[in-house]
Every structure is written in structure tokens, then in C-alpha cells.
Design brief:
Layout: E1 5-6, E2 27-29, H1 43-73, E3 82-84, E4 87-89, E5 109-112, H2 131-134, H3 144-147, E6 148-156, E7 164-172, E8 180-186, H4 197-205, E9 209-213, H5 227-238, H6 246-260, E10 265-275, H7 277-288, E11 294-298, H8 304-309, H9 314-319, H10 321-330, H11 338-348, H12 358-361, E12 370-375, H13 387-399, E13 406-411, H14 420-434
Helix pairs in contact: 5-10, 6-7, 10-11
């Protein structure tokens, strides 16, 4: 039996767009337009086909604009001007919000920072880097660390306390001025950018500019071991921030602004990847900002609405339980139930279980290369919950007539864990599309 099963959405294709009846070895992937020789001969039929594609593109654009409006709705006042060609001009995706409102400006500035000697982990501090990350393919370069340039920077994205974004960037010392591809890596819950150093060094050895940042309320943006969980509870209580996914996506949009202006980076070749929470950040950043050209979310994509409707929300809730306990109490309930879960998502990440859920935002990434990696037994991101997103994504990529630009791979017998093989597949994906 083949280890790759093609999943298509055209009525002429043999494989139905269903995730049921699969085996653990099955891989779901997009295929080329099923009509490569074009059976569309009449002009009117062709125009209808083109109109349909354009309508879908407009829908994705409108959804993206609506998401950006949500991001802007809870920003502090001084956020609406970004650095563009060295001047204070609004980036076109982030134009002024709200008629009759006046906003001050915060220029997008990167300033030098000192290396972090003792990174803060909001959980049990790891004694070593995980085996999966240290297995990342790298060039066999003697004394590699001596050949690397490591930059520690602060990128200022808004006036609030969390508007200072700590960055860690690795690249090879180069005598030439040739622009290189870049990949942004996002850490998982309770980790930090320093945790990703093995990936940064491996990618840098292969000619990338490798970038990591502390997500909101993590690493240098945290004060203690409960900062992130406290921020989630505060968001539920006050409704003034969006610490789960959304606020970090805002920072990633601003990071793209910065990267596109670096002289050593090819602005057309910027990829993004992340693990768990970082995988969600990569997914939503790619949806929100098309400048992220290649995307690899690892153990991070799920169907939030599906999980609520099928009572499969428990594992995800357990990962950030304090906010749900607080919501349960304030709602006068005795225990967490699906009503509590839905209310929390609506409060701290509006639309997450609705219009911005995976069935709508994953297809909006098309036609950019997208590889979704996950464990077959992952309780936080149940595979069955991706049936609709995969079906819709297949349709979007087929309409774009791309070849192998979309793939979902679920590893047998793996739960919520990033494996060495996932790291290798992500590496191969970036090399294929960014080099």
C-alpha cells in the first residue's frame, strides 16, 4: 500500500475528500488541477472558471482584512505607522483604523540587546535541548559557531509594555552581499527564543538567516513563571488584550516589515514555522500576512469549533487551564464545559472558533507552500477535526493549479510531540521552496 494518499475535491477525481477510513500511514496532499490539458474549451466556461477563482481570492482577502481589524481593535493608541523604505508610512495592510480617530505613531525601530544568559522558562526548566531540534540537518562546517553571527535585538512594535519584541538572529559570516532566504521560528508554550538555538544554527549553516522571537508574555517578555497564564486570565477579566495567538501575530506582521528591509534578506523568500503554540502563531501569521511565503506549522493546527462540537476540547484546555477555571467561576458554573470553552475563545481570541477557524484561514494561505505536520494521536489537535480544513485547502490549491504546494502529514503513534522526522520534513520543505 502506498504511504501517500491523494485527497482531492474535484468530482472527476477518484479519491473522495474524506478523512475517515484512513490508516496511520496515510498522508494527505494536494494534487495539480485535475484538468492539466484543459477540457474547458468554450470562452464562457473559461470565464466562469476564472470568475470563481477570483471570487475565492476576494473572500480570502476580505477575511484577512477582517482579521486585521480585530488585531487593531485591542492595540494601544500608538500603533498605526510602520517603517517603510526608511520613512514613516503606513503599510498598506495596516491602514488607519476607524473614521474620525487620530493616532500617534511608533516607528518600527530595532535596537541592539544583550544575549540572555539565563532564559526564563515558565514551567520545568529543560536540562538540555530536545533531541528533535538537535537532529536538524546542518552543513558539516568545522568550528561552526566561530563562523556564525548571532544578533540580539529588540524590535519596538507598539507603545505598550509588551511592544518590545526580543529577537535572536543567526546567520553565517559572509563576504558577499547576496540576499539570503530567511526562516522565522516560534517556540511552544512556556519556552523562549533561546530554546530554538539548535534550529537557528542548523538553518544558518545552510545559508538561511534564521530568526526567533519571544512570543507575548514569554522569555524576556515575562516577569515570572506564571506571566503567560496570568495574562490569559487578565484577558478574560478585562477584554483588553489577546495573549492567546492574536497579539503575537501582530508582532509577526511587524517582524515581516523589519525583515523585508534588511539588506541581507530576500523579502520574497521568508518562511515561518513553529511548534505547538508556535505552530498556531505560524499558521495565523501566514494567513494574516502573505509576505510569509512558505509555511510549516508543527503540532499546531486544529479545528476549534470542531473540538467544541465533538467534546474534544479537554487536552487543549488543560494546556492553559487557569483561564478556564476563572471563567467557570465567573459564569457561576461548577465545572468547565463546552459553553465555558466557547465563551473563553470568544473573549480572548474573537473568531477563533468561528470565522477565523482553520476551515477558513488554512485555505486562505493558498497558493503559498504549506506543510502541516502533526502526530496521528495528538489530543490537542485531533486529526479528525481537520477533515473540513483539508478538504477546503485542497480545493483552494487545486484552483490555484499548484503542484505539491499543500500537504498534511500525521505520524503514526505520535501524540502532541515534535519529532526528528518532522524537523527533517520541515527542513526539506523550506529547502524545496526557498532555495
Amino acid at each position: 500500500m502506498s504511504h501517500e494518499t491523494r485527497l482531492t475535491c474535484c468530482s472527476t477525481c477518484k479519491t473522495p475528500p474524506i478523512l475517515g477510513n484512513f490508516t496511520p500511514s496515510r498522508i494527505f496532499t494536494r494534487v495539480r488541477d485535475p484538468h492539466p490539458n484543459s477540457t474547458i474549451t468554450s470562452r464562457s466556461h473559461y470565464e466562469l472558471w476564472e470568475k470563481k477563482k477570483n471570487m475565492e481570492a476576494v473572500d480570502a482577502s476580505e477575511l484577512r482584512s477582517e482579521f486585521l481589524r480585530v488585531l487593531r481593535s485591542r492595540r494601544p493608541p500608538e500603533v498605526f505607522t510602520v517603517w517603510s523604505n526608511g520613512t514613516k508610512q503606513p503599510y498598506k495592510l495596516l491602514q488607519s483604523y476607524g473614521k474620525g480617530k487620530t493616532f500617534s505613531t511608533v516607528p518600527l525601530v530595532a535596537e541592539p540587546a544583550k544575549p540572555v544568559m539565563h532564559p526564563l522558562y515558565q514551567g520545568q526548566s529543560p536540562t538540555s535541548f530536545c533531541k528533535a531540534m538537535t537532529s536538524c540537518p546542518k552543513e558539516d562546517i568545522p568550528n561552526l559557531k566561530d563562523s556564525l553571527v548571532e544578533e540580539n535585538l529588540y524590535l519596538h512594535t507598539e507603545a505598550a509594555e509588551q511592544g518590545r519584541v526580543p529577537l535572536l538572529i543567526s546567520s553565517m559570516k559572509e563576504s558577499s552581499h547576496e540576499k539570503r532566504p530567511a526562516v522565522v521560528f516560534l517556540h511552544s508554550t512556556h519556552k523562549c527564543k533561546e530554546w530554538l538555538r539548535p534550529l537557528l544554527e542548523a538553518y544558518a549553516s545552510r545559508g538561511y538567516v534564521a530568526v526567533a522571537m519571544d512570543s507575548r508574555y514569554h522569555g524576556e517578555r515575562a516577569k515570572n513563571i506564571s506571566t503567560y497564564q496570568d495574562a490569559l486570565v487578565s484577558a478574560w477579566q478585562n477584554g483588553d488584550t489577546m495573549p492567546f495567538i492574536y497579539d503575537t501575530v501582530w508582532d509577526l506582521i511587524k517582524l515581516a516589515d523589519y525583515l523585508c528591509h534588511r539588506e541581507d534578506i530576500d523579502s520574497m523568500r521568508i518562511g515561518i514555522a513553529g511548534e505547538s503554540l508556535g505552530g498556531m502563531h505560524a499558521w495565523f501569521a501566514a494567513f494574516a500576512d502573505p509576505r510569509y511565503a512558505v509555511v510549516v506549522p508543527i503540532i499546531g493546527v486544529q479545528g476549534f469549533r470542531w473540538a467544541i462540537e465533538h467534546e474534544r476540547w479537554h487536552a487543549r484546555v488543560d494546556s492553559i487551564k487557569p483561564v478556564f477555571i476563572e471563567a467557570t467561576s465567573s459564569m457561576g458554573k461548577k465545572s468547565i464545559d463546552k459553553e465555558v470553552v466557547e465563551k473563553v475563545w470568544d473573549r480572548i481570541a474573537p473568531g477563533l472558533a468561528g470565522k477565523f477557524d482553520s476551515p477558513y484561514t488554512i485555505p486562505a494561505i493558498a497558493p503559498r507552500p504549506l506543510l502541516i505536520l502533526k502526530g496521528f494521536e495528538d489530543p490537542r489537535c485531533p486529526l479528525a477535526g481537520l477533515e473540513d480544513p483539508v478538504r477546503r485547502a485542497c480545493k483552494a490549491y487545486e484552483e490555484a493549479n499548484c503542484l505539491d504546494y499543500f500537504k498534511l502529514e500525521a505520524e503514526p503513534d505520535i501524540a502532541h510531540e515534535m519529532t526528528s522526522s518532522m524537523i527533517k520534513k520541515a527542513s526539506d520543505w523550506f529547502d524545496k521552496f526557498l532555495k
